[in-house]
Amino acid sequence: MSSNLNIKKRCEHCKNEFVAKTTKTRYCSLKCNSRHYKILHQQKSIKTIEKATELKLPPLEEINKKDFLTVKETAFILNMSVRTVYRLVAEKEINSYNFSIRKILIRRKDIDSYFDINLNGTNIDRDHLKKLITLENSYTINEVLKKYNISNGALYRILSRLEIPKKNFGKHVLVRKEDIDKIFVND
Ligand SMILES: [Zn+2]
């Protein structure tokens, strides 16, 4: 590709006009680029703090130090709905300590191992499940990441643990909306 392009653009950080060499350039300088990145990063962690406050949860660092977590805390760190965690507990998918209906505690260790186990011994007809995935009834992985604000790694752990069928379509990976919404839809 020619690098002799001269494109007038507006820097996404300082908002000044500059001449870019490629259509993909977003900042006038490296300095603006790294400053903007830092601000975005900060905003992200502020969002996490706000979410914890809104849910009346302790800060993330404190949750991370605990060996036993409440359902709410578990939902928060796994980026799942509280209902999903209750379902996992009820179906004994995640080991839990039930002192009473209002006092369910989940060991951090059990949360970690929950995502490490990958059940393979099931007799599900995978090809049949794949055939049920069509362009019309699916999300791409990227769409799921955006819609449910979850990291790629966390999503793949969940898909693998729950054995959600996926299908490659060109450079995209498709998953059925029905399968995904069931996991993430909020109360
Ligand atoms: Zn700039």
From TrEMBL:
Q: Which Gene3D superfamilies match?
A: Homeodomain-like
Q: Name one GO molecular function term.
A: DNA binding
Signal peptide limits: none
Q: Where is the Helix-turn-helix domain?
A: 68-115
Q: Kindly give the InterPro entries that the UniProt entry links to this protein.
A: HTH_17 (IPR041657), SinI_DNA-bd (IPR010093)
Protein name per UniProt: Helix-turn-helix domain-containing protein
Q: Which organism is it from?
A: Flavobacterium limnosediminis JC2902
**What does UniProt list as this organism's lineage?**
Bacteria, Pseudomonadati, Bacteroidota, Flavobacteriia, Flavobacteriales
